[in-house]
Amino acid sequence: MSLTENLTKAPETASAAIDKRARKYNVGGVLLDRPFKARRLGHFGFNCYHFDEALVFYRDFLGYRVTDNLDFAKVIPKPGLFDGIQSVGTFMTHGTDHHSFVLFPRAATDRIGGSAGGHEPNDQVTTNQITWQVGSLDEVVNGIDWFSKVGVDPGRVGRDVPGSNWHSYPSDLEGHTNEIYYGIEQIGWNLRSKPPAVIVRGFHEKPDLPQMCEYQELELFRADGVDLNGGHEHVEKGPFEYEVGGVLLARPFKVIKVGPVRLFIKDMEQAVDFYTKVLGLRITEEVTYNGHRCVFLRCNTEHHSLGLYPTALRDELGLSAHSTCFSFGNQVGSYTQLRNAVTYLESKGVKIKKLPPELFPGIDYSAFAVDPDGHLIQLYYYMEQVGWNGAVRSTTDRRRVDNDDWPEVVSAMEDSYDGETLLGPLG
C-alpha cells in the first residue's frame, strides 16, 4: 500500500511506516533522517488558462526573462492530441538558474496528465510544480529509492531538458507535484540557454552513478560540431528608464528570489505529515487566524518557504476558488522597490490586494498582484531569518504593519537584507 493510500485511509499508519524505518543516512558526511536535504525552494510553475496574457504579466510586468520554450506537440507527437489549443509552454528566470518560473497552458497539460511529475492532480490544482534543490546527484538517486521504500510514488524520474536538472517528482496527497532536483543549468552573461542539440542527454529513468560532469558534456558536443551559442536568447525590450540601485532597468524593481509558496489544504494533518516526514521541511511557526490553523515550514534559514492554510479560509478571504494556490512569492531587492513595484503594476492595470499581515508571519510589508488567471503573486522585500537554534522572533518584537499607511522609509531589523542573495547583476 502506498503512502498516499495509507494517509487517505489511516494517517497514523503512514507515519508509522516512515517511523519504523527511522535510521540515519550519510548525506555528504552528515547523518540525516533521510538521504537528501532540501536546500532551497528552486522553481515553481502554473498551468494557466489565459496563457498569452499571463506571459505578458510575468515577462513584461514582473521582469522574468524567457530562457526556453517547450512544444508539447513535439515532445508527444500523437496525432490530434493538441489540435486547436496552445501547446507551447515557457521557461523563465529571475536570476541565473535556467528557470525559476514555468508557465504552461492548462489546456495542453490537461491532455497529458496535468502535472510536471506525471501525477493526476485535482481540478483545482493549478500549480505545475513546487521544487526543492538538494545538494548532489547522489541525493536525488538515493531519494528515489527512499521514496519507494517508505511507500511514496517518486513520480517521473530522470533528467529534464530544457534545464538539465536531475529529479524525482513525488506528489502530496492533494495533487500538488513536488520535485527534488540537482544540477539545474545556469544562464551566463550572454543570456543564452543550452542549444536544442544537447537534449540527447535527457533521461527518463533513474540514472546510473556516476554520471559525467557538465564540462565533459560540453566537450563532447563541441567535438561533434554543436554550436554552443545556438540556444534561446532573451531580448529585453525596454525602455531602460528606471534607476534601481544605480542601474537603469526596464521596471523600477527587480525580483531577487522566488517563494514562499502558499497552498490551501483540505487535510492539514496529512499535508504537514507529507511535507515534514517525507520532504523533511521543518515547522517554523503556527498561527491561528479566525479559528483556522495555518502552518509555516522552511527548508533553510528563511522563516518559511511554504505556507499551508485550510481551504475554508479561501472563501473567507474572498479569493478565487479555481486554485488551491493561495499565492506565489516574489521577493524584490528593497523596501523602496516594493513600493515602486506596487505603483508600477497598478499603472499597468494590474489589480493589487493587501491581506491581513497576521497571515504571513516573518514578512512585514507585502502586497499581492493578481495575475490574469486570478493567482495571487506576493510581493515583499523582507523575510525573517531563523538562527542556529531554530528560534523565531516573538510576535511582540515584530514590526506592526498598517496596510493603509506604508511609510516612505522603515527602520532596520536585525536581519534586514539577510538571507539568500541575488547572484550577478540586476539586469
UniProtKB/TrEMBL annotation:
Spell out the protein name for this chain: VOC domain-containing protein
Q: Which residues cross the membrane?
A: none
Q: Which PROSITE patterns match?
A: VOC (PS51819)
Please state every residue range assigned to the domain named VOC.
Answer: 257-382
| Organism taxonomic ancestry | Bacteria, Pseudomonadati, Pseudomonadota, Betaproteobacteria, Burkholderiales
Q: What species is this protein from?
A: Caballeronia sordidicola (Burkholderia sordidicola)
